[in-house]
Amino acid sequence: MYNNSRRIDILKSYDPRTKLHIALMFVVATLFSWKLIPVLVTIIMAFILILLCRTGIKALVSNCISVLLLSIILGIIFMIILPINIGLYIMLKLISLSLVYVALEKNIKQGEVIDGLALGFGLRAKTTRRLFSFLDFPSKVIREKRRARKAQIARGVDPGGTLFSRFHKEMLLALPNLNAAMSRTRKQNRSMDKRQYSSTRRRNVFVPLRLQMTDKVISIIFMIFMLASLISNILL
Question: What is the 3-state composition of the chain as percent helix, strand, coil, each rounded to the nearest 5?
Answer without folding.
Answer: 75, 0, 25
